[in-house]
Every structure is written in structure tokens, then in C-alpha cells.
Amino acid sequence: MSTLWRRHRHWITPTLFIAPGALLFGVVIIVASIETIWVSLFEWDGVGVKQWVGLANYVQLLNDPQFYISLKNNLIWLAMFMLAPPLGLALALLLNQPIRGMRIMKSLFFVPLVLASVTVGVVFTWVYDPSFGLLSLIFGYFGASAPALLSDEHFVTFAVVVAALWPQVAFCLVLFLAGLNNLSEDLIGAGRVDGARGWPMLFHVVLPQLREVSFIALAVTVIGALRSFDMVAVMTSGGPFGSSTVLAYQMYEQSIFSYRFGYGAAIATVLFVIMAAFISWYLRTLLRPEREGL
């Protein structure tokens, strides 16, 4: 047995470490995803007998106006969340300066990241309150009335996304701070010798070394925008009149409150396909330079 272990330990050891995580991923992610796709082909209330309907749930989904409102809101989330990586990078460059008191500033900017999404949602619900919130105090200082953002179907999604951007920018900030701390001093020194300063140093020396960090920040930001749920649930519950609903919340609402698990599974499947398409593009883009270097 010991001889067998010594002969094959170069692959047995990593396999033993990877196996628990791979098993958990297979059961929780792969099997659950397949089961969701299967359930989407049935009419099911979550308790009784499933009734086969084929693609009827998807046909109904394509004819559902609320689906397009949710999809549009997800696109708004995605577009506005694209601000998180550049804002995080800008703050990281600012906080990475050797200035007195920067450690305290880093801690303050890090706070949103450790707060639960529910907490952030509750805080911003108070901020947006037109009667006694922070926004009403600011508008009142100028003698104006604060708008009821969470009650306005035209602005509610933007208000919720701004609240969600706060911790997302903090996450990107932490990623870029870690990347800035691992920059090659030799490359920076060579750039200074060649006369690179300011923007040329940033674009031609610093940013190329942050490429992997940027891809991670972009991937996490996009996935976070597509799977947005908790902030909507805490701040608006999809209202007013479904105007702030996103795909993940619509799936939850149809499954839990309307007992339409087949229809909810169809929404989840569509969201899964969108995420899978992005992840495929992401991995192909990330691995392309490595393939070209071979």
C-alpha cells in the first residue's frame, strides 16, 4: 500500500483535496441546475403531482410583459454596475498613496464590504425616505421637498442600484488594492527611467499588471448584477407595481408566492443561460493570451 501511495501520490494527494469541493459543487450546483431545467418543463405547485407541459412555460414567459420589465431592470443593473471596477480602481489608486492617515481611510472604505446586504438595504431605505431620511434633510436645507424615489416607478431601479453599488465598489477597491501591492517594482522603476509619469505610467505600466485583477472584478461585478435579489427584496419587494423587479426576484415571487414552481424554474433557466454565456465569454477571453503565448 505504501509503495502504491509513493508511486501515485503526485495525483492522489491533489485528488483527495479536490474531491470534497468537487462533490459539493456537483450536488449543489450541477444536479440542482439540471433539476431546475427539468422542473421548468412541468406545471407544478411545489406540492402536488407535476404535470408535463413541455415548453409552455417558456412560451408564456416570452408573452409575459413582466418578464421584459425584469430583463430591462437586469440590464440597468448591469450597465450601472460597470461603474464599480473603475471607481474601485480610482479609489485604490488614491488610498494606495503614502499619506498620513490612509490606513484609517482604507478601513472606512472597507466597511460596506463587511455589512450584510440586508443592512445596506435598510440603511438606504432610510436615506431615501422623503419624510425623515437623509435625502429629505439635504433637500430641506435648500428649501425643497425630497422625491420619493422608492415609490417612483421611473427612478426606483436606479435608486436600488445606487445602494447596491456602495458595497460593490468597496469589493473592487479591495481587489485592486491587493493588485497594487503586488506590482513589480522593477517594471515601475524601468518606466520611470524611460520617463513615464502620471497617465503614461498608469496606462502602460500599472494597468497591464492589473489585468488578472480587472478580469476578476469584472466577472464578479457582472454576476452580481445578474443575480441581484436581496437589495430588491429588502428595499422595494419588486414594487411599485413590479417596476423594480429583476429576474431573480420574479423567479422567487412566482415560485414562493404564486406556487408556480415550473414557471419560476423557467425564469431561473433563462437567467442561468445568460450567466453561462457570459462565463463562457469570460473564460475564453481570459485564456486567450495564455494560448497565444504557447
TrEMBL record:
InterPro entries the record matches: ABC_transporter_permease, MetI-like, MetI-like_sf
Pfam families documented for this protein: BPD_transp_1 (PF00528)
GO terms under cellular component: plasma membrane
Membrane topology: Multi-pass membrane protein
Domain ABC transmembrane type-1, chain residue ranges per copy: 70-284
Domain of life: Bacteria
Regions crossing the membrane: 12-34, 75-95, 107-126, 132-150, 157-181, 261-283
Subcellular location: Cell membrane
Keywords: Cell membrane, Membrane, Plasmid, Sugar transport, Transmembrane, Transmembrane helix, Transport
Primary location: membrane
GO biological process, one term: transmembrane transport
Family in the record: Belongs to the binding-protein-dependent transport system permease family.
Name assigned to this protein: Permease component of ABC-type sugar transporter
Organism: Rhizobium favelukesii
